[in-house]
Design brief:
heterotrimer; A mainly alpha; B mainly alpha; C alpha/beta; B: mainly alpha; 0% strand; globular; disordered C terminus; C: alpha/beta; 17 helices
């Protein structure tokens, strides 16, 4: 390989990939995706098709802002969001698991509902249309980790993010521990893979599913918290922007594993950041940059299923 | 013994036929009761919200009704709001009937709209060619936009729910790009130039007789109604309609009978996307006459809801779309009179669907029927998925 | 010493069928008791009742002499009953040890965490104590079926089961694995356990059991000490019934071969070879009956002929044309019709009307359709006519198929498939779950088809049906044809023995490795 080409490659890599600013962007932008991915993961592992992530994120985002605004405390906002996640998740579980509503229709309904309700509430409660921003909203400030922050390179890379970012990593670890080290995690995985096996051993399948859906509500709500309190302090209509579904894709691409979800989300975050960088450098118009997460999802799903195709059995249909 | 000698036994005698009729009526009766109860439950929740707004629910519902049907102007506004929803409801219904969850109707609608707008402003043609051309191109554009998720589903087995939603977002940004750069008609705002007069759909106010004053209702409603009849005809009287129906009711049976499932699904999705695209173009050339970026959202999702409300039948979806449109018209008035945001309608309709879909809720006492949207089969993805209790 | 298990006067009805009719079943402590019968005899239902998966409509159960109530299978487990089902209930991604301890995991740190060391330890100790070799850290999905079964047995032992029920345990095992299993059973019994062994394989009954109970049509035919009986007697008890129905059947006039299978090999859903080299011929105007207990490859055979499954190797030749890889519609156009085993899923679209179900295989051809347009007059007339001709008891052609009784549903399927005037008619388990009247009707129709020149391939687990309808009979066992005979010369006992895998001169099982 001649040295000029090598130099060019290294230059591109260092500008776009191995670049502290970009990696910081990656870690930030990936956070809501990580949480949305965990939302999809926990229900997926329990054998539930959960497409309501979008709506649950919106509820979380809104209640976070509301809680923070009225009680002048970001912590209350987070608590309010978590509560909303439990309630929405609980209703979702109730209607689809107990009342046997078609789970996809329920998911669609919650998403539409989440959008409509949050817009409605913004107008009703805050008397604003479109977006609600107010200096009285207390956001989550950046956390500077002592000692770590002074290490060159690693310092700025790992310190200074808002609490939610760190929380998302901690939750990935906790989810791993839960799934693979606790009895209920075992039970949940059994319910997802072979509910009969679980049922004949005395495991309460319904209770596990309920719990999984409510947990997914909490994860989604936290994604919403990041969006409305963690980055800017505002609520915007439709601010989830499809992350609920990107979370599903990230879960698929990450093979249903917490670490896989984390890494896939990083990939998304990186691609997203690079896109913004390209837009900043006027290489790509902003609208195409905005398309990046969605095109990435399509591509990722395609790659993933093509690889799975090998094992598929073929029925004569031509 | 029995049947060997019974080769020419006639169908059941009259008494049994009467029984069957009674059973059918009871079934329809039960379903109507359920719809009415769902609407009532939704109204109760709505009333609570209104009370919170310190409004009298009865007054508000009256205003709502007046805003929807209370005057000639109101009725025309209802028609106008309903027109795009009829298209998206039909598009959703067709896909759902076939067993595919096309939640990409939103994106297909707008892609059809922008494509139709382009043909509308970029060419000068006699009206007799121009208008049909606009409609044709928009149909094809919507169909093309539906093609990607369809192919991914049929050939790769990727769930159409995620892929269609992704195409919605991509469509939004693509259109934003187009209206900001190549298709931009004015220097200050992201919108296309006005379409040629030959591509317009007349609004009722513009016609002699001056009906519908104060509204932007347009003759596109007739196209919508024509589409309802065409779809009804296709589903009932054509081979492809038969295949669509059977595929939705039992894909495994249809496969066994020799029906080409790939062709059925792909065609179904393409037509669904095409109808959505058609609806988008009709909305532009009838109401706005140019495409302004982000002029509205939600046509697709409301269409999904309307189809579900209409229990996935052609006329049901049509009625539901009319209902939804008139509710929107009423809600517009509400914003003025009571300050209630119009999203209340989306919430209310969402709740109705919620309650209707919750079979178990209504089955507390009665015998179970299990007819929940029978025929909507999901694509199996290998892992067992929970569908209900 | 009171018997380990006493089931007295057990009665269980499912919609449309009496699965257990006044059954008395006793198992002594420490014995290996075989429970045999054909499919549908009621053996699995009886054991499911013992295991708490079903509640009996009537009857009592006593364990060790004391009456017990078994409401959930958790009760059964608590009382020391363990069951290994035909289809394993194991979580594929879990390890052996994790599966065994699922639901009862040893814990540490105040019950928050699974004590993974203890899990391994207890399983290793268990495995050693009972002599069941397993690698506790292996993942289930990587293990061969024989080992998976051992895991299922260990699961019951982990929960201190004293009474083990094994449901058709050798159905999925190679001969070698079967021998290993028998060794395990013997050592378990030597250790004080009691084993109930459900099977239809008479050879195994003779080899392993102490006593055997034969069930037929939901009732117990008799219980014998194994050393006092022989396969022939057991076969007679299993299949012999009053011959109720003999269809009026004329002479067959077979013509040219219509269907030819050449060394057909087909894999099942678990990727095991279910059809392992079948060659046969069916001529026009004859009925070839394939007898055999279900699960020996019938389903995969039928599916490969109709086109729902592509064979791994071999050829399917219809009227001289190779249709091995053709689409279903192409095969139907070539003259194949099929009455499928799975009436409710494949044979009919339950939410659809009778008319819609009836036209499903030729709605696209004149006179039903002209081009893309359906001729509703023609389809309606056809439907009405078909309903009349096939004596379908329904109010009208517009009712959903789901409202029909089983017999009438099958008539609809027959009407549709036969109206195509096929040159090859494949019928699988055609009278399952039907009443006597419908059975007669279906049989007559099959004969009619033959008399009109069709080649008929009849696949049925009902031996009596095969014998009364077929002109020639072939017996399917473990994916191969173990014998073919003219119907006139066939006897129930002879066929029964073939069905159980016993041909003259010892076991016929010459299985190649079924795991790839």
């Amino acid at each position: 390989m001649d040295s000029e080409l090598l130099g060019r490659i290294l230059d591109v890599l260092s500008r776009y990939v191995f670049n502290v600013a970009n990696l910081q962007g990656m870690l930030r932008l990936s956070t809501p995706v990580v949480l949305a991915g965990l939302c999809a993961l926990i229900t997926d592992r329990a054998g539930i098709l959960n497409i309501a992530g979008e709506g649950m994120i919106l509820f979380g985002a809104w209640f976070a802002v509301a809680g923070s605004f009225f009680f002048h405390s970001a912590l209350v906002g987070v608590a309010a969001a978590i509560l909303s996640g439990l309630v929405v998740g609980g209703l979702f579980a109730l209607f689809s698991l107990k009342f046997r509503a078609h789970i996809i229709i329920m998911g669609i309904a919650i998403n539409i509902f989440g959008n409509a309700a949050t817009i409605f509430l913004t107008r009703a409660v805050f008397k604003q249309a479109g977006a609600f921003a107010d200096p009285r909203i207390v956001g989550l400030g950046p956390i500077h980790i002592p000692i770590l922050k002074d290490i060159p390179i690693l310092g700025p890379l790992l310190s200074g993010y808002t609490a939610i970012v760190y929380l998302s990593w901690i939750l990935v670890a906790l989810t791993f521990v839960f799934l693979y080290r606790t009895p209920w995690g075992f039970h949940l995985r059994a319910v997802g893979e072979h509910p009969e096996a679980a049922a004949t051993l005395g495991i309460n399948v319904q209770a596990i599913r309920f719990g999984a859906v409510m947990a997914s509500g909490v994860f989604a709500a936290l994604a919403g918290v990041y969006l409305s309190l963690g980055h800017l302090q505002m609520f915007t209509e439709q601010m989830a922007a499809g992350r609920g579904f990107i979370g599903m894709a990230v879960n698929t691409f990450g093979a249903g594993e917490p670490v896989g979800v984390l890494l896939s989300s990083f990939l998304f975050g990186l691609v997203d950041t690079i896109g913004w960088r390209l837009q900043g450098e006027r290489i790509m118009p902003v609208y195409f940059v905005s398309m990046v997460p969605y095109i990435t999802t399509l591509v990722a799903l395609t790659i993933y299923t093509v690889r799975q195709q090998r094992r598929r059995k073929v029925i004569a249909s031509r | 013994m029995s049947s060997l000698g019974g080769l020419n036994t006639p169908l059941q005698p009259k008494a049994a036929r009467g029984d069957e009729l009674r059973r059918k009526l009871r079934g329809a009766f039960q379903r109507s009761i359920r719809i009415i109860l769902s609407i009532l439950a939704s109204m109760v929740v709505g009333s609570l919200v209104m009370l919170w707004y310190k409004q009298n629910p009865i007054q508000v519902y009256t205003w709502l009704f007046q805003g929807a049907f209370g005057s000639q102007r109101a009725i025309f506004i209802s028609l106008q709001r309903a027109t795009p929803l009829i298209f998206t409801a039909l598009a959703s219904m067709l896909a759902f009937r076939t067993g595919v969850f096309n939640v990409g109707v939103e994106g297909q609608f707008f892609i059809g709209a922008i494509a139709g707008t382009f043909v509308g402003y970029a060419f000068r043609l006699p009206a007799i060619i121009h208008l049909p051309l606009v409609l044709l191109v928009s149909f094809l554009a919507g169909a093309a936009w539906a093609y990607i998720p369809t192919i991914m589903r049929q050939k790769l087995g990727v769930s159409e729910i995620i892929t269609t939603i992704m195409t919605n977002y991509i469509a939004t940004f693509l259109i934003s790009y187009l209206t900001n750069y190549p298709m931009r008609g004015t220097p200050t705002t992201p919108e296309t130039p006005f379409i040629q007069p030959t591509a317009k759909l007349a609004q009722f106010v513009e016609l002699p007789g001056g009906l519908g004053k104060g509204s932007q209702a347009h003759v596109g409603i007739f196209i919508a109604i024509a589409l309802v009849l065409v779809l009804w005809f296709i589903l009932k009287y054509t081979t492809i309609g038969y295949e669509w129906r059977m595929a939705g009711m039992s894909s495994r049976f249809s496969q066994f009978a020799g029906i080409n499932m790939d062709r059925v699904f792909i065609l179904g999705m393409l037509v669904s996307g095409g109808i959505a695209g058609l609806g988008g173009a009709v909305e532009i050339i009838g109401v706005w006459r140019k495409y302004k970026d982000l002029f509205a959202t939600g046509f697709g999702f409301r269409g999904n809801l309307a189809a579900l409300l209409g229990r996935n039948t052609v006329f049901g979806s049509f009625i539901a779309a009319l209902f939804y449109g008139s509710m929107e018209a009423g809600a517009l008035g509400l914003e003025w009179s009571a300050g209630l945001p119009r999203q209340l309608i989306d919430i209310a309709v969402g709740l109705i669907v919620f309650f209707m879909a919750a079979e178990g809720m209504w089955d507390f006492v009665a015998t179970r029927k299990g007819w929940s949207l029978s025929g909507l089969l999901r694509r199996s993805s290998g892992k067992p998925q929970a569908q209900g209790g | 010493m009171p018997p380990a298990v006493e089931m007295l006067g057990i009665r269980k009805t499912f919609p449309g069928v009496v699965a257990n009719k006044d059954v008395n079943f006793t198992v002594e402590k420490g014995e290996i008791h075989a429970l045999v019968g054909e499919n549908g005899a009621g053996k699995t239902t009886l054991m499911n009742i013992l295991y708490g998966l079903h509640q009996p409509d009537a009857g009592t159960i006593r364990l060790w002499g004391k009456p017990v109530e078994i409401r959930h299978n958790a009760d059964a487990i608590r009382l020391g009953i363990g069951m290994v089902h035909q289809s394993f209930k194991l979580v594929p991604s879990f390890t052996v040890a994790e599966n065994i301890t699922l639901g009862a995991e040893p814990r540490r740190a105040m019950g928050l965490f699974v004590d993974r060391q203890a899990v391994l330890r207890s399983v290793t100790e268990l495995s050693k104590r009972f002599g069941l070799q397993v690698d506790p850290t292996a993942r289930i999905r990587d293990l061969p079926v024989g080992v998976q079964q051992r895991v299922e047995i260990l699961k019951t032992l982990y929960r201190s089961a004293d009474i083990l029920i094994l449901d058709e345990p050798t159905a999925v095992l190679t001969p070698q694995e079967t021998d290993d299993l028998f060794g395990v059973i013997r050592s378990l019994v030597a250790g004080g356990k009691t084993v109930i062994f459900i099977t239809h394989k008479l050879r195994e009954v003779m080899e392993i059991s102490d006593r055997v109970t034969v069930m037929r049509d939901g009732q117990v035919v008799g219980t014998k000490d194994t050393k006092d009986t022989n396969p022939a007697e057991l076969a007679r008890m299993m299949v012999g019934r009053e011959v109720l129905l003999r269809v009026k059947k004329g002479e067959a006039h077979p013509g040219e071969p219509v269907l030819r299978l050449e060394d057909l090999r087909v894999r099942d859903d678990r990727n095991l070879l279910a059809v392992r080299g079948i060659s046969l011929e069916v001529r026009s105007g004859e009925i070839l009956g394939i007898a055999g207990v279900e699960g020996n490859g019938q389903r995969e055979l039928v599916e490969s002929i109709i086109g729902l499954r592509i064979p791994e190797a071999g050829k399917i030749i219809l009227n001289g044309q190779d249709v091995t890889t053709r689409s279903i519609r192409q095969r139907r156009e070539q003259g194949i019709s099929c009455v499928p085993e799975d009436r409710l899923v494949r044979g009919l679209a339950l939410p659809a009307t009778l008319e819609e179900n009836l036209i499903a295989t030729f709605y696209f051809k004149p006179p039903m359709a002209h081009g893309p347009l359906l001729n509703l007059q023609a389809t309606g007339d056809f439907a009405r006519q078909a309903i009349k001709t096939f004596d379908v008891r329904a109010v009208s052609k517009d009712v959903p198929a789901a409202t029909l009784s089983g017999g009438n549903m099958q008539k609809v399927v027959l009407a549709r498939e036969m109206s195509a005037n096929p040159s090859l008619l494949v019928v699988a388990q055609p009278t399952r779950g039907l009443d006597i009247g419908s059975i007669e009707f279906v049989h007559q129709r099959i004969i009619d088809a033959r008399d009109r020149g069709a080649a008929v391939l009849l696949v049925s687990a009902e031996l009596e049906e095969v014998m009364s309808l077929s002109d020639r009979i072939a017996v399917l066992y473990e994916g191969q044809i173990v014998g073919t005979i003219d119907a006139a010369q066939a006897t129930e006992q002879g066929l029964g023995l073939w069905m159980a895998g016993i041909t003259d001169g010892g076991s016929v099982s010459s299985k190649e490795a079924t795991h790839v």
